[in-house]
Every structure is written in C-alpha cells, then in structure tokens.
C-alpha cells in the first residue's frame, strides 16, 4: 500500500480538473545544475552507475523536491534504456553524450530486433518503487520513455545527430525497415510504461524529442502513428486510479490538433508556441504542459518573474488544465536560484489569476 497523496494538483491539472494554482515541474529537474546532483554522480562514478543503482536514482530524483516546491517528481533515468535492453550496448562518454556499440543499420540488424524482456529493465522498475516509497505521498511520480521515432533516431545514428542523415536515409530508402523498427519500439515502449505504472508511476510521459525534424506528412506516418500505437496499449488506470498520459513533441507545434486526436491527456509544448493560441486550437480535448524557454533562467530574477507571468497570462484565467514547465530540459548551467524564482512566481501568480477569473 502506498501513502495517500498529499498534493494531487499536478494529476488534477492533467485531467483538466479545477486546481487552486497552476502546478509546476521541470523537464530534467534532477540534473547537473544542482551541486548535490553532481556530488551524487561523482559517488556513483558514471551516469549509468547513477541510473542503474536504486538508491542513487532515488536520491537524485528527490533532490530538487528538497530545494523547490515542485508539484511532481519524475523518475531519474534515460530515454535510451529500452534500446540498451535490446542489446545495442549503450554507453556515455564524458562530454560526448550517448553512444551505441551496435547501431541498427542493415536489414540483418533490423531482423534481430525484438521487444526486450522487461526483466532486463528491472533496475528501472525497482527505482520507481523505491522513489514512490520515499516520496511518501508528497507529490505524484511521473514515469517516462522516449517515443518510438526518437528511439529509432538514436538506434540508427548510433548516438545523437545534427542532420539525421542515416535514419532519414533508411526512412526514405527502406521504409519497410523503418516501419519494422518503429513497430517493435512502440510495443516495447508500451510494455515499459505499463511496467512503470505497475511499479508505482502515477503518470507517464512520452518524449518525442526528434519528431519535429520530420517533414509534414512524414511526421504523421513515422512518428505520430507509432506514438498512437503506444497510447493504445498503455494503461489509462491502475488499481482504480486514472493514469494521465503526456506526449511531448519538440518542434511539434504544426501538428497540435493531430497530436490531440491520438488520445493523450496532456500535450507538452516547446517554447516556440503561444500557450493561448495552442489552447484555442485544441479546445478542451487535452491539458497543456509548458512552455518557458529554458534560457530565460539565465536572465535576472525580475526577468524570470516577468516571463513566467507572461506565460501564465497567455494561457489565460483561471488556468485550469495547465501544467507549467519549460519548453525543453533545464540547462546544466542554470543558476539554481532562478528555479526558486520561477516556481514561487508560478504558484503566486496563478493563485492571483484564479481569484480574478
């Protein structure tokens, strides 16, 4: 049995229910901008040493909650755990980002792919259960995965990419191979998210970090369709409680209506979108999450406050159905004090908006 939830504002906002204020959490809120995170990572010896150790993953997940009045915790892990479990050999070189020892480039490589045994990802589910216990009902816990398309980008490129040449060459030249990769990825992601829910995640998020690099028409066929395949399999409730599902596509503003139509509870927006315009386009079909430019946090405190207020005002009063977040992950160089200003401003100004609505 889990402890009763003391702050369910985030979950109610996901389901477009009335809230006393706008909840806030930040993508990559547990990370290198926090000195306590850097100290724990040093003890762990590496990023994967951190992510695969239940105690370390629990510790760093809770660190930002000790500093800030955040309304949700997000599992500390990486989006590439699933292809790693497929046997692609994930590693993180200092300053170079993720690399796969065995990228998927040929027909034979694709033929070998299969949905991994979820037992290989037990360390993730153990971390979810541990974090949920450690939270003791303070705030909800979000689980997550990369989207099928975003995982495919890393799997084919072998790591990050500036031009997506290899993955797009396969997409256009051998669409049959790309569809097979994406179908396997979608089924793996769905199983992975369901196992996180079983372990204690109270909401789940699909990060389509690279959906926005696709052309219109191609996005729908190779990214959106497979994110929909994930949502069709992911639980909408667990033990009688609703489980909100969030979809975030960086650069996806062109396709808001189509993304809302595949069945998420929440759409995450990057910083290029106006929240009010997005709200008018999707109506009451989904809640919205976002979308401050992460670089605002390098500005003076009064500018951080002004930009947070501007974002809240653009969504409009009273503000129900909005989860405040950044438009992408927080930078490792962010001053921690800026986050204090942001969180406090969001809570204070959103309370004012509800009083005047």
UniProtKB/TrEMBL annotation:
Keyword Cytoplasm on entry: yes
Compartments where found: Cytoplasm
Metabolic or biological pathway: Porphyrin-containing compound metabolism; protoporphyrin-IX biosynthesis; coproporphyrinogen-III from 5-aminolevulinate: step 4/4
Stored PROSITE patterns: UROD_1 (PS00906), UROD_2 (PS00907)
Pfam families xref list: URO-D
GO biological process: protoporphyrinogen IX biosynthetic process from glutamate
GO molecular function: uroporphyrinogen decarboxylase activity
Transition state stabilizer (site feature) positions: 78
InterPro entries for the chain: UROD/MetE-like_sf (IPR038071), Uroporphyrinogen_deCO2ase_HemE (IPR006361), Uroporphyrinogen_deCOase (IPR000257)
Cellular component terms per the entry's GO annotation: cytosol
Its EC number(s): 4.1.1.37
Keyword entries, A-Z: Cytoplasm, Decarboxylase, Lyase, Porphyrin biosynthesis
Catalyses which reaction(s): uroporphyrinogen III + 4 H(+) = coproporphyrinogen III + 4 CO2
Main location group: cytoplasm
Binding site for substrate: 28-32, 78, 154, 209, 328
Domain Uroporphyrinogen decarboxylase (URO-D): residue ranges: 23-32, 142-158
Top-level EC class: lyase
Its job: Catalyzes the decarboxylation of four acetate groups of uroporphyrinogen-III to yield coproporphyrinogen-III.
Annotated family: Belongs to the uroporphyrinogen decarboxylase family.
Assembly and binders: Homodimer.
Name the UniProt record assigns to this protein: Uroporphyrinogen decarboxylase
Natural source organism: Piscinibacter terrae
